[in-house]
Amino acid sequence: MRDLLKPILLVLIVLLIPILPFIGFGPWLEKWIESQLRQSLPPVVVAAAVVGLLSTDVFLPIPSSVVSTVAGNALGIAAGAAASWAGMTLGAALGFALARAFGRPLAMRFAGREDLERIDRASDRFGPLVLVLARPVPVLAEASVLFLGTTRLGWTAFFLPVALSNLGIAVVYAALGNLVQLPIAVAASIALPLVAAAVARRFWPKEKEP
Length: 210
Fold this sequence. Notes:
Elements: H1 2-37, H2 43-55, H3 64-75, H4 77-110, H5 113-134, H6 140-149, H7 155-179, H8 182-203
Helix pairs in contact: 1-3, 1-6, 2-3, 2-4, 3-4, 3-7, 3-8, 4-6, 4-7, 5-6, 5-7, 7-8
């Protein structure tokens, strides 16, 4: 059991990075962002705001589903989805790059070489699937990016599933914002991540018992 304490502590630290800001500022920031994006702003300003907000989603409690939904309402499906995809993908790449640069040394302090080798093997096997399942789920999306950044998962194995998942998510929320009345669309964008969490839990990969 003691051998597991350090790896578990590492996972908890990674989870706390997106969780603490979400607990402290999430509800207030969500309302403020929604009110700002719903103003009559030029499309270029809205697109820049969407990209900027979503690119900081790894470290700030940005409600990505709400931002993407409002983007679809303000910019249309194609432009809204493009802005959302660019912001979410840029943010994930930034978080992964920082975790690769600084997270691995931290991981080595909290886990032994054998533990890291087991984690690396699991990331090679399940990492892309974990990224796909976690992308629609708040907090888990950011935590999975940061955690896998501490492993030896390569950029190609990271970027392709993240980029494709983000594209699907961006199109769904942008279409929701464009085709459904905004108050209903925003409410749905808040509920859909809960459904995504249940689906992710159902298909989450598990190590087979030896």
